[in-house]
Amino acid sequence: MYCIIVYDVSVERVSKVCHFLRQYLNWIQNSVFEGELTESELARIEHKLKDLIDLNTDSVIIYKVSFKEIIQKKHIGIVKNETSTII
Amino acid sequence: MYCIIVYDVSVERVSKVCHFLRQYLNWIQNSVFEGELTESELARIEHKLKDLIDLNTDSVIIYKVSFKEIIQKKHIGIVKNETSTII
Questions:
Q1: Among A57, A59, A63, whose Cβ lies nearest the Cβ of B71?
Q2: What confidence tens digit (pLDDT) does each residue in A25-68 have?
Q3: C-alpha distance from residue B87 to each of A64, B6, B70, B72, B73 (Å)
Q4: Beta strands B72-77 and B2-8: pairing type?
Q5: What is the dotted CATH code of the domain comprising B2-70?
Q6: The CA-based dihedral angle spanning residues A56, A9, A62, B19, taken in that order and rounded to the nearest 10 degrees
Q7: At residue B20, what are phi and psi to the nearest 5 degrees?
Q8: pTM for the full model?
Q9: Any bridge partners for residue A5, and if so which?
Q10: Chain A residues near any Cβ of chain B (below 8 Å)
C-alpha cells in the first residue's frame, strides 16, 4: 500500500521522528514522508512512533491508499524531493 | 474531489498561506489542510498560492483523490483538528 505520513511534533523530537521515518519512507518536504509499505512495516512504524512522540502533545497522521496511482499529486514552487511521478 | 494540501514555506509567509487556505479547507495540523474542493476552487487556490509563496524556495504539494473514502486515515498522538471521520 502507499502511505503519506505527516507529523506535527515538538522541535526536540523532530529529528528523531525524521530519522526514524527515513528508514522506511521517502522524505518529501518538511514533516512529510511518502512511500510503499507492507502492513507489517506500517505496524512497526506505528508502534515505534508511539514511543518517539509525546502522545499528549504531538500529532502524526498516516494517510493510506491501496495503490499510489489513485492519488494525483501536484507541486507548486520547488520540488524538495520527488521519488517518482504520481501523475 | 478531496484534497490534502501540505506546505513547506519560509516562516515569513506561513501565516499568509495558512490564512488563505483556511478560506477553503480545514486546518488539520501544522502545514496540513484538507477538504472537498471543486475544480474551480482548486484552480483559484493554485493561482493564489503562486502569488503568495516564493516559487524558488517554497514548496506546496496538493494531493487529490476523487472522493475521500478511498483514503484511510489514522492518527497517532493528539488530533489537532478533525473535521470528519475518513477511514
A1: A63
A2: 999 999 999 999 999 999 999 999 999 999 999 999 999 999 99
A3: 9, 20, 8, 4, 5
A4: unpaired
A5: 3.30.70.240
A6: 110
A7: -65, -50
A8: 0.92
A9: A33, A62
A10: 4, 6, 8-9, 28-32, 46, 49-50, 53-66, 70-80
Cell 483514503 belongs to which residue? Answer: B71
The answer to whether B6 and B31 have CB atoms below 8 angstroms apart is yes
Q: To 5 degrees, how large is the angle CA B54–CA B5–CA B78?
A: 120
Let me know if B34 is exposed, middle or buried by CB neighbors in 10 A (0-12, 13-18, 19+): buried
Q: What is the ipTM of this complex?
A: 0.91
- CA B38, A4, A39, A56 torsion-angle sign: negative
- Strand segments (E) across B1-87: 2-8, 26-29, 32-36, 59-65, 72-77
Residue type, B45: I
Tell the residue number behind the cell numbers 493528539, with chain if given.
B78
